[in-house]
Amino acid sequence: MILGPVGDRTGWMVEGAVALFLVVFPLLLGLFGAGTDLGTRILILGLFGLGVDLIFGFTGLLSFGQAAFYGTGGFVTANLLIRHIVPNTLGALAIGTLVAALAGALVGSLALRQVGIYFAMLTLAFGQLFYFLENSPLRAFTGSENGLPGVPKPSFAFGPWTLDGSSSIGMYVFVAAIYFGGFFIARRIVRSPFGAVLRAIRENPERASAVGHQIARYKLVAFTLAAAYGGLAGGLLGIFQGYMPPEAFSIDQSGEIIVMTVIGGPGTLIGPLVGAGVWTLLRQGLQNVDAIAGVWKLILGLVFILLITGFRRGLAGGAIALWVRVRPAR
Amino acid sequence: MPGLPVHLIEAQLLNGVALGSILALVALGLTIIFGLLGFVNFAHGGLFAVGAYAGWLAYTRYDSFVLGIVAAIAVTFVVGIVIERLLIRLYYRRPKEDQILVTFGLGIVLVEIVRALFTGQNKLVPTPSWASGAVQIADLVYPQYRLDVVGIVAITLIVVWAIIFKTRLGLIVRAGIDDALIVEMLGIDIGRAFMLVFALGACVAGLAGFVDAPILALTPDVGTAVLVQSLVVIVIGGVGSFGGAIVGGIVAGEIISLTSVFAPDWAQVALYIAMALVLLVRPQGLLGVVGRA
Amino acid sequence: MSLNRDRFLRTTAGAVAGLAAGAADLQAASAADSVFLGLCCPLTGSYGADGEDLRKGYLLAIKDLNAGTGVMGQIPSLRGKKGVLGKQIEYKVADTETNPNTAVQHATEFITQNKAIMVTGGVASSEVIAMAKVAQQQKVLFMTGASGSNDTTGIDCQRYSFRSQCDAYMVAKAIAPILGKALGTKRKAVYLTPDYSYGHSLTGSMREFTEKLGWTTVADVVAPFPSPGDFSSYLTNIANSGADTFVNIEFGNDGVASTKQAAQFGILPKMKLVVPNVSTYFPDGVGAELMAGVYGTQEWYFSLADRYPLSKRFLDDFEKMYPGVVPRWTAHIAYSQLAIWADAVTRAKTFNAPAVIATLEAGKPLTLMLGPVHYRAGDHQLVRPVPVVIGKSAAQMKNKADFFQVVDIVPGEDVMQPLATTSCTMPPV
């Protein structure tokens, strides 16, 4: 019921376009003098954002605490790999994602008792709670302000070929494959009846409820899924950097992913990826120009405000709307 | 710690009140806007930073603490007016999430402007000479300046209360909240009233920024921490209630002070647990009114 | 299924193209007449001022290495040569924001994108420890910036990382006897400790050596790190502790804020202040009035120019390059680390990391700004003297940076932590 129709013609075109983009991305980056690693970083944020888009773009829930799950998944995965409790990379990632999802279910069951501003503030409170728990009482597992260095790189054998995670391109392929998987699933979710109810909740919760849907349950499932995406992305961050940073839990991280989703376009799934790309590349690019190095965040902040005020659909959303308008009618 | 002296608890209780009054002052600006306009202002931290730096500039250039206060209030008042006219008034009827988002973005912009003008290095704001030194209260020693801040907070609260409940402006705004249509039909410019209230909230945030500056290490990022803290205070005390800002501030101050005695690791965690509990059990806060948000 | 095959071919094509581009890059790097150094300095954040000083030291060192001038030109193995092994040094400075995550990102970028032959920097031990681990993983040399935690050459020691600052153990062992003689052996001390590895390290070592003298530790008040900026709750505890000596372990801006607030709380001058490790701009922020008569240590201090000819040379060259700026000890660390590295590379006759590591571990002394120094193989801690200082009163200051008088220069060999107790197990090369 959650996963929707497979094998519908328009569906394949979107997945295909995304797959093509993932293949071409490193080359595009190279053209602009950026490394493949930057692309990997953008994909990880895009994956994190898939979850955020599910709850914000599709269900209308604004959460300022998503970093809690990004961090949780990241540190669980990192710990499992560093301490050799689960030496298998995919296994550690799966467990990290699961723990993050459980955390999401727990936080969601409490936070979703409220709506609107109170919900936003509750998520902020929980996000901060996770941050301070990570920083002090749980420091044995998180290395506190040091973070957790020494996360091993994965390596996968496919018959005669080996995908080596310690090379930039190898890591990119690994992360891109997981991003694609995450995107595929997210697409199925939003195009399913479940996704339709989420959209109904965003439009008009009272009506959705009146029609007979148990909106509390839908919201909780969506919130848990978002936490899972966050946890998976966090796990990948630790593996990619070989180091799991405590900032993954910070409120700045929670704020950033929201800004990226809004800039890219909420409700489009690829919005967060676009937003992450714009944010990361602008940051990188501007920092190299001495004159305006310090103001990259100011520029992005202004862009963010402009988009919310006048162009609510964001960059990707606007592009999609334009494409829908100009394509020939079927 | 070996054997807790009784007067340590007393000292921490006093510290909690002083700390709490600072927190209350900082949260007051947020509560004014939230309480009167029903508008969530996530740019509050940014306004705090703007006020702190404006005050610092005046204070260090003219060697006058009072001039610093005036500068902090004046600059943030103007910034508040500009923001309200350009941006905020487009959002009164938009969903709360959009209000949060746009002011969040605004907060980032303000902090970055401050950073661009003043760099990220710490600025040290010295305590004014008439308020430095410590004061003896029974067998407790406490910094003079922090006690003076309690006085400043009290004065600010009285002034703000007078503006809102004893002036025509306040009357218009309070009426406008209850029924904007009727107020407009009476020929009163509700838009101007809203603008002034927003600017009032902004300049109280700016005042708090400068008053708090001698105590903190001043950097542009001080705004984010302050925003989060202010949210905690108004949630605990009650959104939209002045009494709530004070009560919330003092409760938060006491939580931090007392936990630091027994379990310093958990001081911040305790604060957020309290915030979450209040939101779950009594979302309007200790002194808040239901239906405000 | 046709779609899967399509995608697979495209992915492979993309991977091959990427690899080809990467390989071309590598060839370009080794053919050049230069080598790349990655400099990671916190230019913003809590330790921004120290990071700026660190940066200045690096730039002077690289200038001297490339031109064969200054202190570098006085080193026997480098005398008469320009560059290192004939190659000029290219570099880039990245702002770590006093944040281990940012530091790690920059260090990794320097290694993977810029093909750095060595990475150096960091001021907070958390940044340094994180970067050292990256360097170990990537098998690239890392010369630490400032790092005072015992863990950097203790439990977190790395084969590819070398630390020159005197660690907490050395500082405490050097200063304790002097404190005992000057302040007496029956004191009651209260500590303000930042809650991270460096803080606990220094407090632990200070307690070990002062308690051996006869001091009592009344309380260890731990404040969160990063600090909230407002130390009132912690200072209230300290003010009411009944101690007569306040040992402030806080560093950088936190050190300044907490000391000033302590004065506001009446803790100073009622209690005697001890600052075991004085951060670079601490006295400027706190003021001579509070610093007078305060005992502490400084990794290096400019008045040592009177005692060591190379210190004088360093001081003069620095003031020539940066008129009006007096170098602090972070600049000294930057310069000496690059000097030690360049000397080892030259004697090893290669940039290859394992060979340079072996040369460093062989421990042949090199005379620098504090006399002969050498690295100890077991934990990669530099064996070097510890300058103990006392704060001057405003009247005694000869210029606006002359905060200290050097009381003693304690030889390194006397205060090194016994290897067995460091918890360091060196990974293989």
Give the topology, please.
The complex is a heterotrimer of chains A (330), B (293) and C (429).
Chain A: H1 9-31, H2 36-58, H3 67-82, H4 89-111, H5 116-135, H6 139-142, E1 148-149, E2 155-158, E3 161-164, H7 168-190, H8 193-203, H9 205-210, H10 215-241, E4 243-244, H11 251-264, H12 271-287, H13 296-310, H14 314-326
Antiparallel strand pairs in A: 1-4, 2-3
Chain B: H1 6-37, H2 44-62, H3 65-86, H4 96-118, E1 134-137, E2 140-143, H5 144-166, H6 168-178, H7 180-185, H8 190-212, H9 222-237, H10 242-262, H11 267-281
Antiparallel strand pairs in B: 1-2
Helix pairs in contact in B: 1-5, 1-8, 1-9, 1-10, 2-3, 2-4, 2-8, 2-9, 3-8, 5-6, 6-8, 9-10, 9-11, 10-11
Chain C: H1 2-31, E1 34-41, H2 48-67, H3 70-74, E2 88-95, H4 100-112, E3 118-121, H5 125-138, E4 141-144, E5 161-162, H6 168-183, E6 188-194, H7 197-213, E7 216-223, H8 232-239, E8 245-248, H9 252-264, E9 272-277, H10 282-286, H11 288-291, E10 295-297, H12 309-321, H13 329-348, H14 353-362, E11 366-368, E12 371-375, E13 382-383, E14 386-391, E15 404-410, H15 412-415
Parallel strand pairs in C: 1-2, 1-3, 3-4, 4-5, 6-7, 6-8, 8-9, 9-10
Antiparallel strand pairs in C: 10-14, 11-12, 12-13, 14-15
Quick description:
Chain A is mainly alpha-helical and 330 residues long. Chain A has helices at residues 9-31, 36-58, 67-82, 89-111, 116-135, 139-142, 168-190, 193-203, 205-210, 215-241, 251-264, 271-287, 296-310, 314-326; strands at 148-149, 155-158, 161-164, 243-244.
Notable features of this structure?
heterotrimer; B: 293 residues; mainly alpha; two-stranded antiparallel sheet; 11 helices; 2 strands; 72% helix; globular; C: 429 residues; alpha/beta; Rossmann fold; 2 domains; seven-stranded mixed β-sheet; five-stranded parallel β-sheet; 15 helices; 45% helix; 18% strand; disordered N terminus
Find the count of extended strands of chain A (DSSP E, 2+ residues): 4
Largest sheet of chain B: 2 strands, antiparallel
* Low-confidence residue ranges of chain A: none
What global shape of chain B is seen? Answer: globular
User: Kindly state the mean pLDDT of chain B as a whole number?
Assistant: 84
Q: Write the element-wise H/E pattern of chain A from the N-terminal end onward.
A: HHHHHHEEEHHHHEHHHH
What percentage of residues of chain B falls in helices of 4 or more residues? over 70%
Spatial strand order of the main sheet of chain B:
1-2
